[in-house]
Each structure stands twice: as C-alpha cells, then as structure tokens.
C-alpha cells in the first residue's frame, strides 16, 4: 500500500528550462549518516538503484504545487521536482520536510530563516523605507541588477520587497532609458542583461508595476527589451510587427480616446503573454497570474465601454444589414462583432446576460440571417462563430426569434434553414464548419434545454415548426443520394436494392452527420420523428446506405435502425416487418463474410438486443424469413437463441390453442347434459301441474302466499347464484364433473319453483305482465351456463 502511495517520478530542469524525466521509483525520508541529516531517497522501481539522495536543508526553499508536486533548488542551476502518483504520499513527504525545517505543513512554500528575520523587520520598518537596496541604475551595474532580480524570484517575501523598491524609486523608467542607450550603442551584453531584468520584473507579478510598464510611453521599450533573448543568435523584431504589420482597424470610428488606448494596450499585452514570453516552467506557473488578470479586466472594461456607447453599436448593425455596404466593409464588421462576443466571455454571468440582450435588441439575429447567406467564406465562418455564442448563451432566445419570423412561401430564408444549407454546402473537405453547425442544431432541437416552467408550449410549438418548415431541408441530401434509379417511388415491401449509394467521401461524411442528427431525433422527439419516418418511408432510404463502401456510413445507418428498435415501439416494429427492412441488414452481414470487424459486431448486437428483450413480433419475422440464411452462423449463439425464443413462443401458442379446443369439447358435453336435464325438468313439471290443479280450490289468500314465496325463491337464485339458497332439486341434476356441476347447480333447481308459480297464474289476466317478467327470468337462468362455460 505504501509503495503505491509513495511512487514518484524524479525530474531535473535542463539548460533549456525543460524538465527531464530521470526515472520512476519510491521515495522515503531517512537519516543518512554520510550527509549527517534527514534526506529524501528515491530508489528505482525497476532495479532498486538510487535515483535521488537529497538532504533536507533548513535553508532550502521547498514548494508544493498542484497537491502532487514538490519542487526545490539544490544549486544555482540544479532544480529538482518529485511528482507523486497519489496526493497522500505527497502530503506525507511534505510534512516531513516541514518538520525538519520547523514550518507549518499548511503552507505551500517553506522559507529560509533569513526570510523570516526579514519578514519581522518588514513589520517594524515604515512603509517608506527601502526594503531592498537597489544598485544605481547605470550601464556598468546592469549585471548586478540582473542577478538581484533573478535571485529574489524563489522567495515571495523578497519579491514583494523588490517590487516596492522598484515602484518607489521610479526605477522602471530609468532602466528603459538605459535600454535606449544600449540599443544606440549596440551593446549586446547590456541588452541581454536588460532582457533578464525585464523578464524578472514581469515575474514579480505585481499589477502596480504592470501599470507602469504597459503605459503608452513604456510598453514598446518593454517589448524591445524582450527582443534580446540571450538564447537567440539574432534578436526578434516584435516592435516592427506591432507598429507596421499589425493594423488597428476601426470599422466605425471610435471617438473615445480612453477606449482606443485601452484596446491598443490590451492587444499589446496579450501579444507579450502569448508570443514573446516563453511557456512558464513548473516553478513559474503562478508568476504571470496577475498578467492574465490584467488582460482579463481590460477586456471587461472594453466590453462595458462599447456596450454603453449606444450610437456606436447601432451604427455597426445598421451598416451590417445595409445592402449598400461593401463586402470588405461587411467582413470587417462581422469580424468586429465576433471579437466583441469573444471578449464578452470574460464578463460575469449577470453582465453577460445584459450584453447578449443588448445585442438581441439591436438585431443581431436578423443580421446573422443575412450574413450567413453570403458567398464570402470568411464572413460565413465569422457569422457561424457569432451564432454559436448566441446558441450557447440562450437557445430559447434563438428559437423564439425563429418562430416569430414571417412564414413566407420560400422556407429557405428562415434562419435555421440558412444554417442547415450552410452545413450541407460546407466546402471544407473535413467538414469542420458542418460539424460545428450540426452541434448547434442539436442544441436548438434538444428538448432538454427547452423551458418547461416559463413556457410550457415551447417544446411542442418549436418541434412542430421544425418538422414542418425545416426537416425536409435537412433530409434533402439523404433522400437525393438514396433515390431509386428505376422509379420515383419505392414499392412498399420491395426487397430489391436499385438505389444510388454515394461513394464520394465528402458526401458520405455529410450523410453521416445528418444521420447522427436524425438518430438524436429518434431518441428525443418520439412522436414527431415517428410520423416523419412513416410518411417518408425514411428507414428504407437510410438502409440503402448499408451498401456504402464507407463502413462509417453503413454503421451510421445501422445505428439509426438500432435506436428505432431500441425504443421497443410496436408501431415501428410493424413498419419494419411490413417493409421487410431487415433484408439490407442481413445482406450486409452475409456480404461481410467471416471478417471480424465493427460492422459485424454491431449487426450481431442488434439481433442480440432483439433476443434479450424478447421482441416477439420481430423474432417471428426474422426466423420466418431469414433463418435459413442465418443458421450457418455459429460463432455466436445469437441466431440459435432467436430460434429457441421462436420455438418457445410457438409451443406457448400451441398449448393455448389446445386448451381452447379442450374447453370447446367440454362445452359440447355440458350442452348435451343440459338438454337431458331439461327433459327431466319437464317430467317434474307435469307432476307438479296435476298437484296444483287439485289444490286450485284453496283460498285466494293461500295462493298469494305461495306466489310470494316462489318469487322470493327465484330472486334468491338470481342474486346469489348459490345452490344453498335454492330449494332442493331432483337427484338427477348432480353430475360428478366438478367444473360442470358448479354451473348447473346454480341455475337448474330454480326451474320447477318458477314454473309452479306460472301454472297457477294461467287463468288470471290481471297478472299477465308478471308472467312475462318471470318467463324472462327463467330464460336468463337457462342461458347463463352457456355464457359461463
């Protein structure tokens, strides 16, 4: 466990200020008798040889960076670094170093005792005192000044003191005066020292020094000092570039002199950081953080000043949309707006919101609609960048504008259609612009970023708009490149592939982008894309691309179908079955032969998914139509598994059919038994009828009681359906079959009781209605066993 934690790489800094890897090993801190102190030892993990043996000196400044890096200097030109695999190991060694030096491990840098004493004096000495004694600013002392500036960079406290000394004495301007003298005398040695001095002063990382160095009267001399790098045979010509090559273009004249000065200063400082200064080493990574902040705040100030100048921005957009504006002028205007939007990324979120709302109110989107349709490639590229800033900021703002556009007969003027056409017509062989635009389109049609709370109908309205006015433009290249040679329309269910398949690489790339977008739609739009696919028979056209010689395009077509099947939607499944759309996929699998490649794996995964998810309709279609072609594929069990699923389903269907037939036979037997019981009932009725005629002379009151009792018995039989409520029946109605007896015991015993009542009421015309009701009850009771069974 400790091995992993203390695994490190050892680095040393070479003469070119680049880090050399000295090997990988494991670090430990132990007392070394020869060095008479606690030392850092690193032994190589390969052979155990000693990569590093360094005594932890009380006066050495160690620095911890990025949680896993410890760096220090052992000599004037010998810098070391340990890069730990784990933070825990770095923390352990850092605590050991701090323990030896008596420092707080919470600090990221240790300081030597001299610095501590200076820090104590620093607190006692008044601010006006000179904390570092600078040599006189003379040509003969330049080497001494350069050594002083270079030596303080490793100590934060001494850097602070030197910065205060440089500011209090106006030393920077004196040094730059010496630069002009050295350049006039062509004193290369002095110029090389001045390079080291100015570079060191920049690394002091003090904003107050930057204000002096980057002022109008000093910045070009600073750039001049940085031209004379001692490592170069000939000096660079940065000043010549800044003054002659780099041109400041004012698309609209800027009247504010402060704004003009700020723009010039920002450009030059950015040039110093990006072009002149070398890439900072590990030691110097934080030395220029204040320079970065200086540029950042300058950009914020420029954006704010431009945004507040309403006349300036209004004039920019007026000229941008004016048809009379020359193409060269319009190109400059678009590039200005692009740079303006790029600067806005430095703003805080609330300020950035206000910035883009200002642009929207000034008409940025209508202007883009015009500019993106122009023939100039540079203008279109810059307009695309501006559009990407707007979409990234607020997709809803763009969608709202698009839907508010007047619905003209020509859909090509709509902003989204302009974007789609630019994507389709990208002349770049690698389709760099098309890829960028496709990403923007996907953001616009993504339901995930459509506002549900403030505008519940945005998703429905925009998607309806998109599929009505824009989808045909997006799919036009796909449909054009998969058309039938022989007929205008494909015959439904046709299995022949008489379609054009693009072989041009750029066209294939474009179709792949379109398919990627359509696949996204299948996953996120459900209803709208389903309707479109069905109406246009789109999947059939897409599967034509399975024949493409470009495997990536065939895979895109397959991915589109896989996403559709992945939805497990029976509407899609029926569409696939009806159109026999597995045929091109299976043909591609068979044509691929025994080659084990991505296409092979992707097709097999498609069928494996159908098997695992047990999509019965597709399994039956595949086995019924294609199993003979697939049964020879045995290096995977997918197709045998599909066959197994198919057989299992057939067995279940067969069992269900047999059960139905058995039930039908049982029904016939029950009916026959029922009719036999009816005959027995009729014999019983005749006996009852004779008995009732004999008792007819009884009083009318007794008859009414009998009638009431019979009615109650019939109602009980109907309501409860249980034999226990009904009077005992004839022994002939008690069959042994349990399933049949439950039905017959419920209905049949009630028959004699009801008929007894009917016979008694024959000669009474007043009770005819009651007779009809009772007859209906009797019929319903007799019919119920057939319905139940």
UniProtKB/TrEMBL annotation:
Single annotated GO MF: protein phosphatase activator activity
A single cellular component GO annotation: protein phosphatase 4 complex
Domain PP4R3 EVH1-like: 5-101
UniProt entry tagged with the keyword Coiled coil: yes
Domain Serine/threonine-protein phosphatase 4 regulatory subunit 3-like central, chain residue ranges per copy: 144-648
Keywords, sorted A to Z: Coiled coil
Ranges in coiled-coil conformation: 643-670
Classification via InterPro entries: ARM-like, ARM-type_fold, EVH1_PP4R3, P4R3-like_central_dom, PH-like_dom_sf, PP4R3-like
GO biological process entries: DNA damage response
Pfam families: EVH1_PP4R3, PP4R3
Statement: the UniProt record of this protein carries the keyword Coiled coil: yes
Similarity annotation: Belongs to the SMEK family.
Purpose of the protein: Regulatory subunit of serine/threonine-protein phosphatase 4.
Designated name of the protein: Serine/threonine-protein phosphatase 4 regulatory subunit 3
Organism: Labrus bergylta
């Amino acid at each position: 466990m400790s091995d992993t934690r203390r695994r490190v790489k050892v680095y040393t800094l070479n003469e070119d200020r680049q880090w050399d890897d000295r090997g990988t090993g494991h670090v430990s801190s132990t007392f070394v008798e020869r060095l008479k102190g606690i030392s850092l030892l690193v032994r190589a993990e390969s052979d155990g040889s000693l990569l590093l043996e360094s005594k932890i000196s009380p006066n050495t400044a160690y620095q911890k960076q990025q949680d896993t890096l410890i760096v220090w200097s052992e000599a004037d030109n010998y810098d070391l670094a340990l890069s730990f695999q784990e933070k825990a190991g770095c923390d352990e060694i850092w605590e050991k170093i701090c323990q030896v030096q008596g420092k707080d491990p919470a600090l990221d840098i240790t300081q030597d005792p001299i610095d501590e004493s200076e820090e104590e004096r620093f607190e006692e000495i008044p601010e006006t005192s000179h904390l570092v004694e600078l040599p006189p600013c003379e040509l003969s002392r330049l080497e001494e000044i350069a050594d002083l500036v270079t030596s303080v960079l490793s100590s934060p406290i001494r850097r602070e003191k030197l910065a205060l000394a440089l500011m209090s004495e106006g030393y920077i301007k004196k040094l730059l005066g010496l630069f002009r003298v050295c350049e006039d005398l062509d004193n290369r040695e002095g110029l090389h020292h001045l390079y080291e001095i100015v570079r060191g002063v920049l690394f002091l990382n003090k904003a107050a020094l930057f204000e002096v160095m980057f002022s109008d009267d000093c910045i070009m001399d600073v750039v001049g000092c940085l031209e004379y790098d001692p490592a170069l045979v000939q000096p660079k010509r940065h000043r010549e570039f800044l003054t002659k090559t780099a041109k400041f273009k004012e698309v609209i004249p800027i009247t504010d002199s402060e704004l003009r000065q700020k723009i010039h200063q920002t450009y030059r400082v950015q040039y110093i950081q990006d072009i002149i200064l070398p890439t900072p080493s590990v030691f110097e990574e934080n030395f220029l953080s204040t320079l970065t902040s200086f540029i950042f705040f300058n950009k914020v100030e420029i954006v704010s000043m431009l945004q507040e100048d309403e006349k300036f921005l209004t004039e920019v957009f007026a000229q941008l949309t004016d048809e009379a504006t020359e193409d060269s002028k319009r190109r400059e205007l678009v590039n200005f707006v692009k740079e303006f939007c790029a600067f806005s990324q430095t703003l805080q979120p609330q300020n950035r919101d206000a910035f883009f709302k200002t642009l929207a109110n000034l008409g940025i989107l209508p202007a883009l609609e015009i500019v993106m349709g122009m023939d100039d490639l540079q203008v279109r590229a810059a307009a695309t960048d501006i559009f990407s800033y707007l979409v990234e900021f607020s997709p809803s703002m763009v969608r709202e504008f698009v839907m508010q556009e007047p619905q003209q007969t020509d859909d090509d003027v709509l902003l989204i259609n302009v974007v789609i056409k630019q994507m389709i017509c990208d002349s770049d062989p690698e389709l760099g612009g098309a890829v960028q635009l496709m990403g923007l389109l996907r953001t616009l049609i993504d339901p995930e970023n459509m506002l549900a709370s403030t505008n519940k109908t945005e998703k429905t309205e925009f998607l309806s708009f998109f599929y009505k006015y824009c989808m045909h433009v997006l799919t036009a290249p796909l449909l054009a490149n998969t058309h039938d040679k022989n007929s205008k329309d494909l015959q439904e269910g046709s299995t022949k592939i008489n379609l054009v398949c693009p072989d041009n690489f750029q066209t294939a790339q474009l179709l792949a982008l379109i398919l990627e977008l359509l696949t996204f739609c299948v996953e996120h739009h459900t209803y709208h894309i389903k309707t479109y696919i069905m109406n246009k028979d789109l999947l059939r056209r897409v599967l034509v691309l399975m024949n493409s010689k470009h495997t990536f395009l065939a895979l895109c077509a397959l991915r589109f179908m896989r996403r559709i099947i992945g939805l497990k939607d029976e509407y899609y499944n029926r569409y696939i079955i009806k159109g026999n759309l597995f045929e091109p996929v299976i043909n591609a699998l068979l044509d691929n032969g025994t080659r084990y490649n991505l296409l092979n794996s992707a097709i097999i995964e498609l069928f494996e998914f159908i098997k695992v998810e047990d999509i019965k309709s597709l399994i039956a279609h595949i086995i019924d139509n294609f199993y003979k072609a697939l049964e020879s594929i045995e290096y995977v069990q997918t197709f045998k598994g599909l066959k197994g699923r198919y057989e299992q389903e057939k067995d279940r269907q067969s069992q269900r059919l047999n059960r139905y037939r058995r039930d039908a036979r049982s029904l016939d037997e029950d009916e026959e038994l029922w009719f036999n019981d009816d005959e027995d009932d009729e014999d019983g009725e005749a006996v009852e009828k004779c008995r009732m005629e004999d008792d007819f002379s009884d009083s009318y009151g007794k008859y009414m009681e009998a009638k009431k009792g019979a009615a109650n018995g019939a109602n009980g039989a109907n309501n409860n359906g249980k034999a226990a409520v009904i009077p005992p029946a004839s022994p002939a109605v008690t069959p042994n079959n349990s399933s049949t007896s439950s039905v017959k015991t419920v209905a049949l015993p009630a028959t004699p009781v009801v008929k007894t009542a009917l016979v008694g009421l024959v000669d009474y015309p007043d009770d005819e209605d009651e007779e009809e009701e009772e007859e209906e009850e009797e019929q319903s009771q007799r019919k119920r066993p057939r319905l139940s069974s």
